[in-house]
Design a protein that fits this description.
The complex is a heterodimer of chains A (295) and B (274). Chain A contains 12 helices and 3 strands, in the order βαββααααααααααα. Chain A has one domain: MetI-like (MetI-like fold, Orthogonal Bundle), CATH 1.10.3720. Chain A starts with a strand and ends in a 7-residue tail after the last helix. In chain A, a hairpin with a 2-residue loop joins β2 and β3. In chain A, strands 2-3 form a two-stranded antiparallel sheet. With 295 residues, chain A is mainly α. In chain B, β2 and β3 form a beta hairpin. Chain B has 274 residues and is mostly helical. Helix content of chain B is 74%, strand content 2%. In chain B, α4 packs across α10 and α7 packs antiparallel against α10. Chain B has a single domain, classed as MetI-like fold (Orthogonal Bundle), CATH 1.10.3720. In chain B, strands 2-3 form a two-stranded antiparallel ribbon. The chains are: A mainly alpha (295), B mainly alpha (274). At the A-B interface, β1, α1, α3, α4 and α5 of A face α1, α4, β1, α5 and α6 of B. β1 of chain A pairs parallel with β1 of chain B.
Chain lengths: 295, 274
């Protein structure tokens, strides 16, 4: 789309900028400010420079939380993306079934995150939960409060339950944008189902999948409420992810300096991963389609 | 022969789809099941459906103002956030979709980075900022805090929808003598109606489900339902029945909203870009 060059468009941006500045720039500057100071009380503070950053980067418990976080994010992406594509291919395309399935699939996305935690807390309890009870009935000593593996797998399962819908809905909308003529051409060529998926459907899904993977990565990296309610980060630290470590540090222990330094590192990691991923995908698309992207 | 394999294929698809729906609905069903039982029945024998159906858990929530005000508070700040985000995002998205200006690309990218900011990062500064300006424990505080991720999201979605409207329409309207505000409200907004609906859906969704900021910025007056629910954990154990009933009631507004936008949701999830 050819846009008109007009700097007066800034006036249209201004109200938004003022609000976002209030809710993003001022708090972020506060964080930066704290991250380079040692605050004893409101009147006594020292400049520490990069000390907190060095300390945080060398903190073994935070390194462990970071590793767990990456492990978790990659696991759920590896499950949710293929599963979401599969569900999207299965979803009915027209009629009342299409609407009904659409609403049901969207349902988990609209549940407050702490309630998601509560749902799974109830569902997985050994005494009153259907899943916990069933697993015990078939002879598996399922217990998320003592077995780190059970707790971790349950959180992964909960996340798959909660968020696969997002990938599925994104792909579903991508699939609906494919003109019927493409499929007719494929039928005339006697293309296999795999060939149709690989050469017609998947290329059309690239755009929505980039959005989906980015959103999922971002949100899984910030996951807080669900494990907080379900396992409280335990047993031990096995399901303590970055947000929870940070929230404990900032509000319970009130170590504002280290917490601020940690916040900035945390934020930068997310930005870096998103940027690398986005650039990689965009370059891949350019290589594959000579003459620019067709998105 | 071909007919048989085709039927088998359709059947397999339907079965797989049904299996996923069962997976989605089973935990929710269990919550509903719990909410209709008394605590003694919940903690007694495990039953697949309520043996003695009771509405007592729901009655408790609807008669106790400290419970139902949690829902009211949540709805108030969600609606405020939707109104604020929409009001500032509409002109901004229009500017991004129609004009190029100094720093537009950088600004847009910076805007999107705000969506990536973990709420935990802003916990402490928000608390102090809103406390200092006297907004702590008000609805507007939570509404403003949620703008952090909702405004970028709204601009992003709306920009996609607006860019699919040909700019010849703008030019024709201006030649016909429409002023900009009149054109925007009378001509342009009706054209992106579905985009606005979808955006409102997303704004609702992300503001309604967020817990960390909403809980930190409120104490009593504007307490969201999410933090009221923690009251079910008492010294004598967890009040499972009430917790389940409260959980079921948090799902209801979401169902209502998704029902209204069901025809546009598929396109909306692609952010208007397909």
């Amino acid at each position: 789309m050819n846009k008109v060059r007009n700097n007066r468009a800034w006036w249209l941006i201004l109200p938004m900028l003022a609000l976002v500045a209030f809710s993003a720039i001022i708090p972020l500057m506060t964080v930066v400010n704290y991250s380079v100071q040692d605050v004893f009380d409101p009147h006594t503070r020292f400049f520490t420079g990069t000390e907190w950053f060095v300390q945080m980067l060398n903190d073994p418990s935070l390194q462990a939380a970071l590793l767990r976080q990456f492990g978790f994010s990659l696991t759920i992406l590896a499950i949710e993306v293929p599963l979401g594509i599969g569900i999207a291919l299965l979803m009915p395309k027209r009629g009342w079934q299409a609407s009904a399935v659409l609403i049901l699939v969207t349902l988990p996305l609209l549940i407050p995150w702490n309630v998601v935690g509560s749902i799974w807390q109830i569902f997985t309890r050994g005494d009153i939960g259907l899943m916990g009870w069933s697993l015990r009935e078939v002879g598996y000593a399922y217990n998320i409060t003592s077995s780190p593996l059970d707790a971790w797998l349950t959180i992964v399962l909960m996340d798959v339950w909660h968020w696969t819908s997002l990938i599925a809905l994104l792909c579903y909308s991508g699939l609906r944008a494919i003109p019927e003529a493409y499929y007719q051409a494929a039928r005339i060529d006697r293309a296999s189902r795999w060939a149709i998926f690989r050469y017609i459907q998947l290329p059309k899904l690239t755009n929505v999948l980039v959005i989906g993977v980015l959103l999922r990565f971002m949100h899984s990296f910030m996951i807080y409420a669900e494990p907080f309610v379900l396992t409280g980060g335990g047993p031990g630290n096995s399901t303590t992810f970055l947000s929870q470590s940070l929230a404990v540090m900032a509000t319970a222990q009130f170590d504002v300096g280290p917490a601020a330094a940690f916040s900035l590192i945390y934020f930068l990691i997310i930005l870096l991963v998103c940027w690398v991923f986005y650039t990689l995908i965009m370059n891949m698309q350019k290589d594959r389609v000579p003459g620019g992207d067709h998105g | 022969m071909a007919e048989v394999t085709r039927k088998g294929f359709v059947l397999r698809r339907t079965l797989l789809m049904a299996a996923y729906l069962v997976f989605v609905l089973l935990p929710i069903y269990w919550l509903v099941n719990m909410s209709l039982q008394s605590n003694s029945e919940i903690l007694g024998e495990l039953t697949l459906w309520p043996q003695q159906l009771t509405w007592a858990n729901y009655a408790r929530i609807f008669t106790d103002s400290s419970w139902y005000m949690g829902y009211v508070n949540s709805i108030i700040y969600v609606l405020m956030n939707m109104a604020i985000s929409m009001a500032v995002a509409l002109p901004a998205a229009y500017a991004f979709s129609r004009y190029s200006f100094i720093g537009d690309k950088h600004l847009f990218f910076w805007l999107l980075t705000n969506m990536m900011a973990p709420p935990a990062v802003f916990l402490l500064p928000y608390f102090q900022l809103y406390y200092t300006v006297g907004l702590f424990d008000t609805h507007i505080a939570v509404a403003l805090a949620h703008c952090l991720f909702n405004i970028p999201l709204a601009v992003w979605i709306l920009e996609g929808f607006m860019s699919s409207v040909p700019r010849e329409i703008d030019e024709t309207a201006f030649i016909d003598g429409y002023s900009f505000p009149r054109f925007f409200v009378r001509v342009f907004l009706p054209l992106i109606r579905s985009g606005i609906g979808v955006t409102l859906f997303f704004l609702f969704m992300f503001s309604w489900v967020e817990l960390l900021l909403a809980r930190t910025l409120t104490s009593t007056e504007a307490q969201p339902i999410a933090s009221v629910m923690t009251r079910t954990q008492t010294a004598s154990g967890i009040d499972w029945g009430t917790l389940a009933a409260a959980g079921v009631l948090t799902i209801v507004p979401g169902i209502l909203v998704v029902f209204f936008v069901r025809h546009h949701i598929a396109r909306g999830f692609a952010l208007g870009r397909t």
